[in-house]
Amino acid sequence: MHELSLLEAVRQQAIAEARRHGAIAIERIHLRIGSLAGVDPEALAFAFEVVMAGSPAAGAELRIQTVDARWFCTPCSAPFTGPSGLCLCPRCGAASGLLLQGRELELSSLQIC
Description:
By secondary structure, the protein is α+β, with helices and mostly antiparallel strands. It has a domain at about 1-70 and about 100-110: hypothetical protein PF0899 fold (2-Layer Sandwich). About 25% of the residues lie in helices and about 30% in strands. It has two helices and six strands. It has a three-stranded mixed beta sheet, covered by helices on one side. Strands 4-3-5 form a three-stranded antiparallel beta sheet, with no helix packed on it. Strand 1, helix 2 and strand 2 (about 60-65) form a beta-alpha-beta unit. The two termini are about 30 Å apart. About 20% of the residues are buried.
């Protein structure tokens, strides 16, 4: 389960950022996860408490925002949202290889004290 190693990286980044701001604890961690990132949000949530235990993020709340895949259609000169992996423009049917969003895995914000 690569979600554990991803959470380890999130923990390290969150703790470093909290320390940079002089915080003693992290109350909430917000993540943005793209639908094409290859990450299972349920697995992250399941492992979150265990990975954060014994750190300034112990007992923190995890909030996950899922980011839908968004493509750009060159013939239409317009973006469109499609289900994971489907990159056919709903207007003209053209296939798009230009992914605008959907592979994110980012620590978007922290609530610290």
